[in-house]
Amino acid sequence: MLKAIRYKSLGYTSFFNPDTGFFARVPDTGKKDPFWSPHGPELMDISITNWCDKGCSFCYKSSTKCGEHMALDDYKRVIDQAAEMGTFQVALGGGNPNQHPNFIEILEYTATKGVVPNYTTNGRGMSDEILNATSKYCGAVAVSAYPPYDETAATIKKLADHGIKTNIHFILDAGSIDTAIDWLNQPPEYLAGINAIIFLNYKPSGRTVFEEKLLRNSARLDEFFGLATSPQRKLKVGFDACCVSGVFARTNANTSMVDACDAGRFSMYVSEDLKVYPCSFQSGLVEGDQLDSETTLLDIWTKSRNMGMFRSYFSSDRCGECSHRSVCMNGCPLFDELVVCGNR
């Protein structure tokens, strides 16, 4: 059922279908698209654990088997406040979120508050109980794709067997772009049942930073973005906000179908220790705002200097007279290296 929330004083209406994931923000006649939502974020990215047993070198949270879980009561407090702010959905992450000891209760509680839970998994710990709860409560699951992709393929099959809407998260860098192009030209058979493949621009953050892996170092950017946005593509494709500079500058894609970064404008991140940031990738760079008994998420959203700095960046003229500035909003506030438009 389509939900609609009218913000008369702000001049727009938000529409969200919890069954399909459809979302639209529609300005009133004669009004511009809103720059941010003072009432609270529409999406929250929540790290419910920093526990993971894979130890990937590129993990920006350096998650390990010693990682801590968010307390269940703390999670419920976050979701209670999210629901009060009109948040439509949450993206649960980590670590590997489905290996949180209270994961099923987390999904159930989120749904009872009218908020749609989604999560990203590396594929481990996907028990029948987890799969059944996912099918019952979740909007979608994203599977992180890592070579040699055997585990990825097995996880996709498990989710498909339970009728769960499945996306693939593919980290795009100067090396993996070759695989991405191969998949766009001829998708592997195990991708046949997925909803979409979402390309995530490699961030220079994690246990080990590889400057040579930065996507902008690839000579195949035009080829990739051309294939990924072609009407004849064989896979449904999406991008994280850190790829949009390439979409805007290297393709003829309809800009109304692509959003600039929402961090601090329509989305926020909460870590497992209740630190709050505009973006999850900022968590290793600065001290976040602490959610506690005296400070609410809405307080942080509306009054935090950190949130304000992000909004100031997006509204600035950093990129000068670039024709894409109004839709790209200057690219990433954290990593200038992620800008792949070729204009700076």
TrEMBL record:
Task: Give a yes or no for keyword Repressor in this entry.
Answer: no
- Enumerate the spans annotated as Radical SAM core domain: 38-240
The UniProt keyword set, sorted, is: Iron, Iron-sulfur, Metal-binding, S-adenosyl-L-methionine
Task: Note the Pfam families from the entry.
Answer: Radical_SAM
List the cofactors.
[4Fe-4S] cluster
The transmembrane segments are none
- DNA-binding as a keyword? no
Source domain of life is Bacteria
Q: What is this protein called?
A: Radical SAM protein
The species this protein belongs to is Methylomonas rapida
Q: What is the lineage of its organism?
A: Bacteria, Pseudomonadati, Pseudomonadota, Gammaproteobacteria, Methylococcales
